[in-house]
Structures are given as structure tokens and as C-alpha cells.
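Lab notebook, bench 4. The sequencing result for the construct came back, and we need a structural model before the next group meeting so we can plan mutations. Quick request posted to the team channel:

Model the 3D structure of this chain.
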Amino acid sequence: MDAAREAARRGLLKLMLRLPSFRGQLQLLWQSDTSLEALCEAYEDATATLERLVRNSGIGEEGLADEYRRVCLELESDVRNRCLSRTARSR
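Done. Here's the predicted structure in C-alpha cell form:
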């Protein structure tokens, strides 16, 4: 498995932990929606960067950590909306 695909898989797992009510939908989307992989990879990158910033936080880096928190929340929202729109289409 290549590095990008592995990062996307880690991002998917993190999203499944953060959005437990969407786990089943995420598993289905992972298999059928190729654009979800890019969102999951971006989520993995953002959360890993945030964790690194928080762990190594220094003076003046709080703003950057806050920015990455917002990015993570926006990605979670995008994934949530994608799951909700898929649910609405399948009814």
C-alpha cells in the first residue's frame, strides 16, 4: 500500500472515532466514493500536524494550532455533510 493510501486509511479510522454515528456510512463511502480518500488523507495530515503542534507547543504557536483545529473541524463537517447527503439520496 502506498503512503498516500495508508495516510487516507489512518484518516478514515480517525474520522470513524470522531464521528461514531457515521461509521457505517463511512465504510460504505470508502468503497464507493473515491473523493473521500482525499478528504481522509487531508484529515490525517491535519490531525497529525495538530498533534505535533500541541505536543511541541511554544510561545507564538497557539494561533497555528488553533488554525489546524479549525481545519480539522471543517474536514469533519465536510465528511459529515457528505454522509448526510448520501443518506438523503438513498431515501
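The chain has one domain: 3-90.
Will bring this to the meeting.
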